[in-house]
Amino acid sequence: MQKAEESLEDWADRVLTLATPAFRNLPEKHCMQEAISKFCHGCVDREAGNHACFERPRAMQEAVDLVRHHQYVTQAVDGNRKSKYAVNAVSDEDDRMSRLEKMVERLTSTVQSFSQRKTFSQPRSPGSPLLCFRCGEEGHFKRDCTQPQKTTTKNWGKSGDGRSPLNSNGQMASANPDRPKK
């Protein structure tokens, strides 16, 4: 970012000085394009920098000339009005440290509140009994059932208990799906 009292030439020199080691592994043409782009986008006069960038200068001096020309034309049109430049202020180290400490405190309190919560959940809705799908009795699940299995695939529908499965058509499923129904 161009400093408030830095001339365009000094800013261009600083950009080129920083760009040379930063883009040393790239072709020289690409390095120059990147440096010119950084120069234009980092100008204190944003409007002039954007104007110069849109013109796609091929050399740094051409970019400097485009920025100067835009500033000259703008001053000629607008008169001697002083442009207002906004400069981003960098916060003090102490200010940054205090913000970091506050964020750590908030994070710590959040973690503590999560650890103090009771983390049990009810696996079923209250009031519904535990039913075994094998024997039908309350108090245990099928995996814990000690009763022998009542029905097998051979006698589905013959047990007389009314729990015969249906196929996808809503008809009784037969033990042998290849056998036609009578």
Automatic annotation (TrEMBL):
<keyword id="KW-0175">Coiled coil</keyword>
<dbReference type="Pfam" id="PF00098">
    <property type="entry name" value="zf-CCHC"/>
</dbReference>
<dbReference type="GO" id="GO:0003676">
    <property type="term" value="F:nucleic acid binding"/>
</dbReference>
<feature type="compositionally biased region" description="Polar residues">
    <location>
        <begin position="146"/>
        <end position="156"/>
    </location>
</feature>
<keyword id="KW-0863">Zinc-finger</keyword>
<feature type="compositionally biased region" description="Polar residues">
    <location>
        <begin position="165"/>
        <end position="174"/>
    </location>
</feature>
<keyword id="KW-0479">Metal-binding</keyword>
<dbReference type="GO" id="GO:0008270">
    <property type="term" value="F:zinc ion binding"/>
</dbReference>
<feature type="coiled-coil region">
    <location>
        <begin position="90"/>
        <end position="117"/>
    </location>
</feature>
<dbReference type="InterPro" id="IPR036875">
    <property type="entry name" value="Znf_CCHC_sf"/>
</dbReference>
<keyword id="KW-0862">Zinc</keyword>
<protein>
    <recommendedName>
        <fullName>CCHC-type domain-containing protein</fullName>
    </recommendedName>
</protein>
<dbReference type="InterPro" id="IPR001878">
    <property type="entry name" value="Znf_CCHC"/>
</dbReference>
<feature type="domain" description="CCHC-type">
    <location>
        <begin position="132"/>
        <end position="147"/>
    </location>
</feature>
<feature type="region of interest" description="Disordered">
    <location>
        <begin position="143"/>
        <end position="182"/>
    </location>
</feature>
